[in-house]
Specification:
By secondary structure, this protein is mainly α. The chain has 7 helices and no strands. It is elongated. The protein starts with 19 loop residues before the first helix and ends with a helix.
Length: about 150
């Protein structure tokens, strides 16, 4: 639903809130009132999931990924389109890292990934990528696909 929030670590999985249309069939006024209050308070977007990444770490991640993005430019229209798609996905990642839109453990893994790419340690790159894919895929799949396309497979 539009008002469903991401699952918080250590908490049980939440039930989705009924929509206003679903709620119109409710006979319990107390539950209906509570649902409407929660729907109203969650309509503004989601709260940060983790800590914002430190500015110097974010700059480091940007520089490493920009270097990889620049190395993929070969002048063909297909490559330019791929590069533009990856760039949009990376901007999504940078925004989430800056505002705490990803869990702290995830942002630390992104930093670890950037350092491994910089060191050309592709065994660690592959391992960290797999760890990122297995955690919070639904919230992060947009930028994870961009990172996957960006990093050369070895």
């Amino acid at each position: 639903t539009a008002s469903a929030m991401p699952v918080t670590d250590g908490m049980p999985v939440a039930w989705p809130l009924p929509t206003k249309q679903m709620q119109s069939l409710s006979t319990n006024k107390a539950v209906a009132g509570a649902n409407m209050q929660i729907q109203g308070s969650s309509a503004g977007g989601s709260a940060p999931m983790g800590e914002p990444m430190a500015p110097h770490d974010l700059t480091h991640v940007r520089n490493v990924f920009s270097m990889l993005l620049d190395s993929q430019a070969d002048g063909t229209p297909a490559a330019a389109k791929k590069r533009e798609d990856i760039s949009k996905r990376l901007e999504d990642l940078y925004g989430k890292l800056e505002t705490g839109g990803v869990k702290t453990a995830c942002s630390q893994k992104v930093l670890q990934l950037a350092k491994a790419v910089e060191a050309q340690d592709f065994a660690t790159v592959s391992k960290v990528q797999q760890e990122l894919y297995s955690v919070d895929w639904e919230q992060n799949k947009n930028w994870l696909m961009g990172v996957k396309r960006l990093i050369p497979s070895r």
